[in-house]
Specification:
The protein has helices spanning 2-7, 10-19, 45-70, 88-106, 114-134, 141-166, 175-192, and strands spanning 23-25, 31-33. It is mainly alpha-helical. Strands 1-2 form a two-stranded antiparallel sheet. A hairpin with a 5-residue loop joins strand 1 and strand 2. Helix 2 runs antiparallel to helix 3 (45-70) and helix 3 (45-70) packs antiparallel against helix 4 (88-106). The longest helix is centred in the first third of the chain and has 26 residues, at 45-70.
């Protein structure tokens, strides 16, 4: 159950907490909760909800990080898919998810800082790929290849996003094709490697 919460349910649960902080101004200039136009931000019960959201998100993130660092099968066994020498790469993955959720909620609405967001995402995806490819944390070769392929595709997708942003003012509109072709090449390379 703990690994299910840390991996699959981490982002949805954390997003629920962060959603309490996302406010938008309506046409009258009143700041209201993005998901509910009935709640005025930073007044009344919203302040209590924000305090609880921040408190429980801090506890949730701390708990997930500790679980990710401590709860792993460290026995050398190539037959167990989750057996690994270290869980530092997985802990970095949790930190990366937190940063990306915060970037998605707060930075993508401001067009002037799209460059910063894209560069931060590229750097995070590079280090995530480096941690899984360079440190080889999984004993099981199949589990290792799956992690490297998924992180390689993620790095390639962010590279294409950066390239698309660089070529934004030109007539370049083949970004999707570039992502798919590169993803297939990455899959084939790491399967055969």
């Amino acid at each position: 159950v703990a690994s299910f919460i840390v991996t699959i349910l981490f982002m949805p649960i954390f997003e629920v907490f962060i959603a309490m902080l996302q406010c938008d101004e309506d046409e009258d200039g009143v700041s209201k909760l993005y998901y509910s136009n009935d709640i005025i931000c930073w007044e009344g019960s919203h302040i209590i909800h924000v305090i609880f959201a921040i408190f429980f998100s801090f506890i949730f993130v701390s708990m997930c990080t500790v679980i990710q660092l401590c709860y792993f099968d460290c026995r050398y066994s190539i037959h167990e898919a989750d057996a690994r020498s270290s869980s530092r790469a997985d802990a970095f993955l949790v930190v990366t998810k937190i940063i990306q959720i915060l970037l998605m909620y707060y930075a993508y609405t401001v067009r002037e800082i799209h460059w910063i967001v894209i560069i931060i995402q590229w750097v995070l995806s590079f280090f995530m790929f480096y941690f899984f490819y360079g440190y080889h944390p999984y004993y099981n070769e199949t589990a290792h290849k799956i992690r490297v392929i998924s992180n390689g595709i993620y790095l390639w997708g962010n590279t294409c996003l950066l390239l698309g942003k660089i070529l934004e003012s030109s007539d370049f509109n083949s970004g999707i094709e570039l992502v798919f072709i590169g993803s297939v090449i990455i899959i084939i390379y790491f399967i055969l490697h």
